Amino acid sequence: MRIVPRSVETLIEELGKLPGIGPRTAERLAFHILKSEPTRAAALGSAVDGLHAGVRSCRICYNFAESDECDVCASPTRQKEVIAVVEEPFDVVAIEKTGLFQGQYHVLGGVISPMDGITPDQLQIESLTNRVKSGGVEEIILATNPSLEGESTAMYVRTELEPTGVKVTRLARGLPVGADLEYADQITLGRALQGRQTF
């Protein structure tokens, strides 16, 4: 016997596939959407439906963008000579929330992880070295997560950048090992940016 309509079950299943959403939370969200005004549910559906059509990868840094360049790369006020290298676009959001970094970004698209079959050529490492080689970059801040994979990726990127002679720094150890940037509080992340060291 079906307890809830099939359409509600489908919504619960799909919400449950999101990271950090368990079965109970998925149920609560589905029932909240169901009880909301139809216009609110339609607005949510429209936002989700248009997400992939309206968002693409920045041609320079690989952050999320609505045009060929993201707002950071297109901004004339950002420091072009300093690039923070991060794993994913949500790491850009975490650093931007500190309000302390005025440079550019480069999103790798993940980390090197042989166990998961992710090799360096699957990440945006070559495009980073090309950005540095094209000139104007004075410092690369390696802002990968302080996990085993993040550290390994940072060391690999540093090795790839050595021939360019660019200054390579690493976020200070204010971040706990094993933590993700997206979960770090703004003060800790801000101090880690300010206390970065040569890598």
Question: How many separate structural domains?
Answer: 2
Please count the beta strands (DSSP E, at least 2 residues each). 7
Supply Rg: 20 Å
> Percent of residues in beta strands?
5-15%
Question: Given this structure, which CATH class of the largest domain is correct?
Answer: Alpha Beta
Q: Which CATH architecture of the largest domain?
A: 3-Layer(aba) Sandwich
Overall mean pLDDT stands at 90
Low-confidence stretches: none
Order of helices and strands: HHHHEEHEHEHEHEHE
Helical amount: 40-55%
Structural class: alpha/beta
Fold topology:
Blueprint: H1 6-16, H2 23-35, H3 38-49, H4 51-54, E1 56-57, E2 64-65, H5 71-74, E3 82-86, H6 89-96, E4 104-107, H7 125-133, E5 139-142, H8 148-161, E6 167-170, H9 186-194, E7 197-198
Parallel strand pairs: 3-4, 3-5, 5-6
Antiparallel strand pairs: 1-2, 6-7
Helix pairs in contact: 1-2
Task: Walk me through this protein's architecture.
- This protein is α/β, with parallel strands linked by helices and 199 residues long.
- It folds into two domains: 6-54, Orthogonal Bundle (Helicase, Ruva Protein, domain 3), CATH 1.10.8.420; 77-198, Dna Topoisomerase Vi A Subunit, Chain: A, domain 2.
- It contains nine helices and seven strands; from the N terminus they run ααααββαβαβαβαβαβ.
- The strands form two sheets. The chain has a five-stranded mixed β-sheet with strand order 4-3-5-6-7. It has a two-stranded antiparallel ribbon with strand order 1-2.
- Helix 1 crosses helix 2.
- The radius of gyration is 20 Å and the shape is elongated.
